[in-house]
Amino acid sequence: MKRIVFPLLAAILVGTPVAQASDVDFGFDLHIGSHSPAPVVVHEPPVFLAPAELGFHVAVGVPYDMFFIGGTYYVCRDNHWYRGPSYNGPWQGVGPRHLPPGLAKKRYRDIIRARDAEYVRYKKDKRHYKGRAYHPRDDGRGHGKGHGKGKKRKS
Predict the structure, then answer these.
(1) pTM score, two decimals?
(2) CA of residue 131 relative to chain centroid, distance
(3) Torsion-angle region of residue 13: left (phi > 0), alpha (psi -120 to 50) or beta?
(4) pLDDT of 50-76, one tens digit each?
(5) Nearest by Cα to 146 from 135, 131, 130
(6) In this structure, how many other beta carbons lie within 10 angstroms of the beta carbon of residue 135?
(7) Distance in angstroms (rounded) separating the CA atoms of residues 18 and 40
(8) Nearest to 129 by CA among 45, 50, 44
(9) Which residues are CB-contacts of 118 (< 8 A; sequence separation ≥ 6)?
């Protein structure tokens, strides 16, 4: 009986087409340490406003959530934080525990809400804007006169 079953099974298996899964892929990413630099490019210096309820500067009119605190720029992209010496970087990943107190203690949506409300006030009348505005120089270093102390721009 065994002499018949094994050859029969072998014949069946050889004659059966083998299923191929050419579209199956498997990947594994492991990130230890800081995140790769954020791809942030700003072609001209952004305007930074300092809403009173925040106590630090937030960029307006750019497609990034960018902040200026204590001479350092911070960007949040895809739920990851980065810092750099200029509004154009170079960017280095930074963990939430290493953010300045203003960014770490406030809820992110409250920061964005305060930024948006301040930007509305700023756009209404830039010439008579009463708040603090910071305008970095366009020299590649990204630092403006007064390092965020509220130097007003005359438009």
Answers:
(1) 0.65
(2) 26
(3) alpha
(4) 999 999 999 998 888 999 999 999 998
(5) 135
(6) 15
(7) 48
(8) 50
(9) 49, 50, 51, 58, 60, 131
